[in-house]
Amino acid sequence: MTESEADERFVLLLGSTTNDTVLSKLKAAGILYVEKRLESNPENWRTITGMLQNEQLLAVIVKLTGKNLAAAMTHDYCEAARALADQLGRVRHMVLVHESLLGPDERVPPPDALVMDPDDERIPWFLSRHDHPFARPSDELLAKAFEYLRSANVSVLPYETNAELSVISAAFLDDYEQNLLFRIYVPAGRLYSDEADKLMSLFHDWMHRVKRQRVRRGGYETPDGQVFEFFGESAVSAGEVAVQFNDFSEFLDLCLANNDEAASWLVRSGIEPRRADALALRYAKEGRRIDRDMRQARDELLVRLRYELEEELSDTFDETVGASDLDRLLRQLVPEPGMGVQALSPSISSGSSRGEINVSVVQQVFEHVEGTVIGTVTGTANLGTNPRELLSLVERFADADQRQALTTSIYEVEDAGAPADKRIVARQRLKKFLADLGGKVEDSVIRVMQAYLESRIGI
Question: 67 φ, ψ to 5°?
Fold first, then answer.
């Protein structure tokens, strides 16, 4: 970076991340970029740490090799590596590692490995000489390195080929340029999916009219589902949008319960009284319409499920399960409408239902009914066994702040109509999640899930 460029905003590229796709995007956007290599001495790593503290830094894209990770764990580099990782976790970043560095080294070299292009990163795990840039450190060393990155809040995403590296890096830059704030996939057929679209439109209006924040709604729609995205100015953060959505949900509930109090809430937020009255009336009207549509959707689902289950349980219906039992069970399982997250990602109330229904509903019948309701309410009815199992693993083991992104990734991998770059990023995010499950579930389960994701290699 020259002295004349020192005051310009810039993107930092660490390691050999440069490629035509990334550089073209940066140049087209008029964004300055600075390249720094990690195959260097500890002093250069300290220089990089200083650059990460630069207020003009916009974002960082990092490519870590096995050689980089091995160096970071040595006595000479350890202190500089920890400082670099700690600072990296505080800025917007994307760290990419070849997926062969995740998990145990169990692969067999391809028969044509010796004649392949040495820059083709499908074979770094084969070229494992210590002086080779793609050398693979021991499993123990890699586990320690990745654990420290996790503790420093450094997000890592795997790639298999250089083409994937380009796609993932470009997608990261796209999200950065537009300041992606919020993203969720709502499968078609999920309970309240139609109302979710209306709710997102009203939330977008709320952000403009009430919060006076410039946000843009994006996303895409396919026959299988819809992705909702919100983008905003750099001053708006993803965390702030989450808080605003909670405020919005509470405000709509207040509008439905007490319109005068809703208007007073707006006045306390700094809106002129006459305008507050008009806005409260408007949101109350729209909120009632959405609430009515959601209740109608729930009633229609209850009727359909009752009919389908009566047919399926015809052999045991009269003897074991009465009509009132089935109706009571369905009403307990199918969630009531709500103006918040429940509309975007409804879930059944299975925890206490078993004890509340008539004892004549035997366990086998209960589990059959519950399984049918879960698939319909959550939108998983059309998913295969493997994606359902992966959803279960995400629910059980993913960190709370990552659960929604991973769930969206599963649906995008399954949606053939989703953009190819979105599906690639989704698949690689799920591969990283599986790699982190080592020791938490049986290896056979992880291998099945990995094979399932590999079967999506053509996306």
Answer: -65, -40
Helix (H) / strand (E) containing 231:
strand 225-232
Q: What is the three-class DSSP state of 340?
A: coil
Beta carbons within 10 angstroms of residue 177's beta carbon? 16
Structure-block tokens of residue 132: 């080779």
Domain 10-178 sits in CATH at 3.40.50
What order of strands is seen across the sheet that includes strand 225-232? 180-187, 225-232, 215-222
Which pLDDT score is estimated for 368?
76
Residue type, 172: F
Q: Do the Cβ atoms of 277 and 259 come closer than 8 Å? A: no
Q: Of 123-132, 353-362, 418-427, where does the model show the most confidence?
A: 418-427
pLDDT digits (tens, 9 = 90+) for 259-314: 999 999 999 999 999 999 999 999 999 999 999 999 999 999 999 998 888 887 77
CA distances from 413 to 218, 237, 291, 376, 408 (A): 19, 27, 32, 20, 9
User: Which candidate, 307, 285, 296, places its Cα nearest to that of 194?
Assistant: 296
d(CA 332, CA 337): 13
Name the residue among 143, 54, 45, 63 with its Cα closest to residue 90. 54
Residue corresponding to tokens 């605003």: 244
Dig out the tokens for 368 from the structure. 């059959």
Cα 55 versus chain centre, distance: 28
Confidence category of residue 236, pLDDT binned at 50, 70, 90: confident
Domain assignments of the chain as residue spans, ordered by start: 10-178, 181-320
H helices present in 152-237, as ranges: 162-178, 193-209
pTM of the model: 0.85
Say which residue the tokens 């460029």 belong to. Answer: 5
Residue 142: burial class (beta carbons within 10 Å; 0-12, 13-18, 19+): buried
Report helix, strand and coil shares of the chain as percent, to nearest 5: 55, 10, 30
User: Comparing C-alpha atoms, which of 398, 410, 400, 405 is closest to residue 453?
Assistant: 410
pLDDT over 70, % of the chain: 84
Q: Reading across the β-sheet that carries 32-36, which strands appear in turn?
A: 32-36, 10-14, 57-64, 93-98, 156-159
Predicted pLDDT of residue 415: 96
Q: What angle do CA 349, 354, 359 make, to 5 degrees?
A: 150
Task: Average the pLDDT over 32-38 and give the result.
Answer: 94
